[in-house]
Amino acid sequence: MNIKTNPKSKSEGYLRVIPTIQNDWEKLKDSMVELSQIPAILFSGEKDTKHIFSIDNQLIYVLGLGNEPEYKSTENAFRRIISQHKSLISKGISLEFPSEFPTHLIEPALVGLQLGVYNLGFYKKDQAKNSNDPKVEVHYDQKGIKSLVDRAQKIAQAKMEAFKLVDLPPNKITPENLGSWAKNAGKKYGFETKVFEPKKAKSEGLEAFLTVGRGSAKEPRFIIMEYKGPKSQFHLGLVGKGVTFDTGGLNIKTQGMHHMKSDMGGAAAVLATIQLVSDLKLPITLTAIVPAVENAIDKDAYLPSEVIGSHAGLSIEVIDTDAEGRLILADGLSYLVQNYKPEQVINLATLTGSSIGTFGYECAALFSNDGGLSHGLQQAGEAVGEKSWPLPLWDSYGKEMDSEIADIKNYHGKPFAGAITAAKFLQAFIHEHSSWAHLDIAGVAFGDSEFAKTKSGTAYGVSLLLRYIEDQL
């Protein structure tokens, strides 16, 4: 999106967008003659309201944000401008922030405005005709607006990458394609990328990862990305579940399979985050791993009751081939901790329906063996509208994963505590790392929204991780 800041003159024919906080509305009306005649019965600045009118052939869009608007509600309010009102924009948008507009809301406003251009019609014949990426000019008389615009553009670009990675179909987003994405992004944004093909993965002992990919014609890829920022202040490790499509394997899914292109929502968040951190040149070291596989079925597919190996050296009894995400994460976590030794480790995964059963579609399930890390992630998520809530990691839950024949089993097979027992399985592969968190994002990475007619990606985790990282600096 082409955005200019504080141009010398306002462009004619642009849609004028004027946001307001409810408590500031009367003051704003007094200061702008074109707003002075709007009656209170039509508009008062309440949350999620707007008033559109024309004066002297100039179309004006007044946006109400309510009192004390939050990051996410502000982002969504601005996203609606382009997403839901394309017909109002003929030449461009003139975004006019009043002088008293809170500076901390500029970022979500600018991010949301840019997200409004995103749509799902990737393969529609008339996609080019329906696309709308208008010119934008931003008017704000406070200092630093240019740097705020630059930052918001980088955040919006990363979030739209996360949208796209989840929303594109599984014949386009394959493990190989994710590996190519990581290599190309590394060259563009300045991080190093290594991609292990099956032969290399086998020599590295990534047996659980390779087992899941056995049944697919699409070869798995184990993706490692390293960003080393200027004057790095700490080392964070990320792992994202990258199941590009999940049939369930031989324990085949019986419903909702067409949504399983979204089973790499954790990978999308991690890939977009390393892009963003590199683009912003943050002073940290970030190592990110995405084990990318397709869980499919053929004569080589792994079987329930198999005993398989793992990078950590633990043998795993396979109870359910649809509990595959934890198997690839186990190797990802083990490889990260043993080879890169980050100070903190966070993994994100669309892991269990149990987390949805607990929290619905409101927040992620959070597990951590470090109270400070857990609290930090919660606070960061609350600040940007990507909520999480902690669940316990008590040892008694770990006993549910005991196996008679192997060191551990991948599923306890009982209709309770599914998200917790999955987390306990992952914990067995972190080599007793003292600062680890697992975010089960099954209910928040892909879902219904006002911005699409079908379920779509949310980019959950990108803003959360950015805020958490910057809170540590």
TrEMBL record:
SUPFAM superfamilies xrefs: Zn-dependent exopeptidases (SSF53187)
A matching Pfam family: Peptidase_M17
Keyword Protease: yes
Protein name: Leucyl aminopeptidase
GO biological process: proteolysis
Gene3D superfamilies found in the cross-reference section: Zn peptidases (3.40.630.10)
Domain of life assignment: Bacteria
